[in-house]
Design a protein that fits this description.
The structure holds two protein chains of two kinds.
Chain A: E1 5-13, H1 20-29, E2 34-36, E3 51-53, H2 65-68, H3 73-89, H4 93-96, E4 101-106, H5 112-123, H6 137-141, H7 145-154, E5 160-161, H8 169-182, E6 188-195, H9 199-207, E7 238-246, H10 247-252, E8 259-268, H11 278-292, E9 301-303, H12 310-324, E10 329-331, H13 334-337, H14 344-358, E11 360-361, E12 378-379, E13 384-385, E14 390-397, E15 401-408
Parallel strand pairs in A: 4-5, 4-6, 9-10, 9-14, 10-12
Antiparallel strand pairs in A: 1-7, 1-8, 2-3, 6-7, 8-15, 11-13, 14-15
Helix pairs in contact in A: 3-7, 8-14, 11-12
Chain B: H1 3-18, H2 29-33, H3 37-51, H4 57-62, H5 69-81
Helix pairs in contact in B: 1-3, 1-5
The chains are: A alpha/beta, B mainly alpha.
Chain lengths: 412, 86
């Protein structure tokens, strides 16, 4: 069994907004969501990087206490985008609870905010004679907290996949959800990823000298993918959800079909856990195209992982150059909001969808002078008004994990 | 620790911690407010703070059949009677 899979709903919370209108405005007007990192009273004074892709606008949550009590900040983000995406899809309550809808959703490491509360209880000055760890702290903090708070809130009874592969968490969610629908295990999958404000992740990259540190006084000027002055990544927060649905099921019920997911590939470099690997990335891209039944010259746009690290961008540009040449536009969406970690694959898929719908390519922000080692591809350097029919979204993670998703706007 | 004092303290916890305001004193909390076993564990932690004293495992297990505010008040008063006043 091999079935067509379409996107029938999506929603995002990002450092550049949580509505399509707001996000498109940031992308078309070149407005960054990177801000000064707010102090956390623990790590920020030890971290050299002082910037963060920040969600600093109010979000009107209306979750009932029965749901809130098992949710940490990351689950708030996840459930809010899940709620909006489900509403946009128009899926009926009967279908949502039927067992034919599953969830593929993850985060980098659950809720670090709640984990810190637990550690404070263990190692802090709390009166050890009294119970201080809440009955629900584990449920709030565990690595699959996003996926199962979504199933609880909406009564979803299908399969649950909760990938946790750092930067490929949500691109895997979409890919594995796609396969679940394509091969008939589920008729629809709610897919995505989320990560909350967390300086632990910043500290990890900072310690590896991979974080941006030269633009602390001018946060909007970093990250700078493919630029000669790039000095590392910027960690961010957010959430993205897409509803994947079997094409005939979506068509029969008159659902809004936003795009078709044509293919997915996931592989591993088979070696180092940190160093970027051009052969691994190139193989992912070719596998993705093969899975989608597409040729490289049929792709209009590549949403690059483009974290703005010294070597990662060079390896990625070389891999894109080898597979696509100068054909498709290449943009690095992290330049607008930093690296939203477990949510980046889903958020970048949604932003790509918005660009397809509105017929433009957002330029890579802060790409003032292209590093000659990254110059072999067709960088989007200013706003391009052009139809985008097909796109590839690529993401790579620590551990040598690579993913590639192939999208098509029109459904023939 | 009088009965009125304990009841007021418990109602305050229910309002602030569980967003359940002025429940009937003999209402079944599970039926009326979806007050479940996870909530019960959280309530036991609040009772420990109220008493200023940790509960034994047996004391906690004894709380699992409690259903109403009145029963909670009885439970807390019984615990208080076994502990030195603070």
């Amino acid at each position: 069994m091999s079935r067509r899979v379409v996107i029938t709903g999506c929603a995002a919370i990002t450092p550049i907004g949580n509505t399509k209108q707001g996000i498109v405005q940031h992308l078309t007007e070149g407005i960054s969501g990177v801000k000064a990192m707010r102090a956390d009273g623990l790590l920020t004074e030890h971290i050299h990087s002082g910037v963060f892709g920040t969600v600093d606008y109010p979000i009107a949550y209306d979750f009932a206490r029965q749901h809130r009590k098992t949710m940490g900040p990351v689950a708030y983000y996840a459930c809010q985008t899940a709620k909006e995406a489900l509403a946009a899809s128009g899926l009926s309550q009967e279908f949502i609870t039927s067992g034919r809808l599953g969830v593929a959703f993850g985060s980098t490491h659950g809720s670090p905010t709640v984990q810190r509360q637990i550690y404070r209880t263990f190692f802090g000055q709390t009166d050890a004679k009294l119970s201080s760890i809440g009955a629900v702290d584990y449920l709030k903090s565990m690595v699959h907290t996003t996926a199962v708070n979504i199933t609880k809130m909406f009564g979803i009874t299908g399969r649950v996949i909760s990938s946790s592969t750092a930067c490929t968490t949500s691109s895997q969610s979409i890919g594995f959800g796609y396969e679940a629908v394509k091969f008939g295990m589920q008729d629809a999958m709610l897919c995505g990823g989320a990560d909350e404000y967390d300086t632990t992740t910043v500290a990890v990259f900072d310690n590896l000298l991979a974080c941006s540190t030269e633009f602390n006084a001018t946060p909007h000027l970093t990250p700078r993918p493919f630029d000669v002055r790039r000095d590392g990544l910027v960690v961010g927060e957010g959430s993205g959800t897409v509803i994947l649905e079997e094409y005939e099921h979506a068509r029969r019920r008159g659902a809004p079909i936003l795009a078709e997911l044509l293919g997915f590939a996931c592989n591993n470099n088979g070696g180092d856990l940190i160093l970027p690997n051009v052969e691994g990335i190139e193989r992912t891209i070719r596998l993705g195209l093969e899975n989608a039944g597409m040729r490289a010259d049929q792709i209009d746009l590549v949403s690059a992982h483009a974290t703005a690290t010294k070597m990662g961008d060079v390896m990625e540009a070389q891999a894109i150059g080898k597979t696509y040449g100068q054909g498709p536009w290449v943009t690095g969406l992290k330049s607008y909001m930093g690296h939203t970690m477990g949510s980046c694959g889903a958020i970048e898929t949604i932003l790509t969808l918005y660009m397809m719908q509105e017929g433009f390519v957002a330029p890579t922000l802060n790409l003032d002078e292209v590093d000659e080692r990254c110059a072999m591809v067709r960088h989007a350097r200013q706003l391009i008004q052009a139809p985008v029919q097909t796109a590839a979204i690529q993401n790579f993670a620590f551990g040598g994990v690579n993913t590639c998703l192939i999208l098509r706007k029109a459904v023939p | 620790m009088t009965r009125d004092h304990v009841r007021d303290a418990i109602l305050k916890i229910f309002s602030e911690r569980f967003e359940i305001d002025q429940p009937g004193l003999d209402e079944d909390l599970r039926d009326a407010y979806e007050f479940d076993s996870i909530d019960a564990i959280e309530l036991l932690r609040e009772i420990e703070l109220l008493l200023g004293s940790a509960l034994t495992r047996e004391e906690k297990k004894a709380a699992m059949e409690i259903r109403t505010i009145d029963q909670i008040v009885d439970y807390v008063l019984a615990l208080a009677a076994t502990r030195p006043a603070n």
